[in-house]
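Researcher: We plan to redesign the surface later, but first we want a full-length starting point. Tokens attached.
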């Protein structure tokens, strides 16, 4: 069975489970011995997928794949969220993220610039159009893109020479350390890394009957 056939079968089995949980199947990938299934909330949702939802989805998907056996041999099932900065691999991914800032690295190592960043203003089955910082638009063929992802923006940037409205510059002591008493380590900021749960199904052919 080819990898594409396995992915198609897995996608078909996972889609109704995700729909029952009010989730979308964002991506299905086979990476060596790992079958990675990326789930997300529907487009336009205010919140992201929770770890509880991922855990429940993992149990249901694992049980379904054990029963239907769409993947040959031993494999690790990984059910994950796309994270705040999500990879863009397919035309549907680009179309879903229109209006967001993305970055793209081109396949051609001689391209100048090789990495392009801007607001994704349009996307179809073959291309993506970005509005660059200088106000110009650039259309990229999807086949020319090596890697692409969304860019998570932490908030509006203050104007040069000005502090954000309503905020004061924290006082510093002689050592240059912040003395405002607030945590500035960034540890409480949201993580851009996806949440992931895993299980280790085996081929039904090798399981003992229950």
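Model: Full-length starting sequence:
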């Amino acid at each position: 069975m080819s990898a594409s056939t396995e992915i198609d079968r897995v996608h078909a089995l996972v889609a109704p489970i995700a729909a029952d949980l009010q989730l979308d199947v964002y991506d299905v990938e086979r990476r060596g011995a790992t079958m990675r299934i990326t789930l997300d909330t529907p487009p336009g949702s205010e919140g992201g997928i929770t770890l509880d939802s991922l855990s429940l989805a993992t149990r249901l998907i694992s049980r379904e794949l054990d029963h239907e056996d769409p993947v040959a041999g031993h494999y690790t099932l990984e059910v994950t969220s796309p994270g705040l900065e999500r990879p863009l691999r397919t035309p549907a991914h680009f179309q879903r993220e229109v209006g967001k800032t993305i970055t793209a690295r081109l396949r051609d190592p001689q391209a100048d610039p090789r990495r392009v960043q801007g607001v994704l203003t349009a996307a179809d089955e073959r291309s993506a159009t970005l509005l660059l910082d200088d106000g110009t638009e650039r259309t990229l063929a999807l086949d020319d893109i090596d890697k692409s992802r969304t860019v998570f923006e932490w908030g509006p940037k203050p104007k040069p020479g000005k502090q954000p409205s309503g905020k004061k510059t924290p006082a510093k002591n002689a050592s240059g350390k912040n003395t405002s008493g607030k945590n500035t380590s960034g540890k409480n900021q949201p993580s851009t890394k996806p949440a992931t749960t895993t299980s280790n199904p085996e081929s039904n052919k090798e399981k003992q009957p229950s």
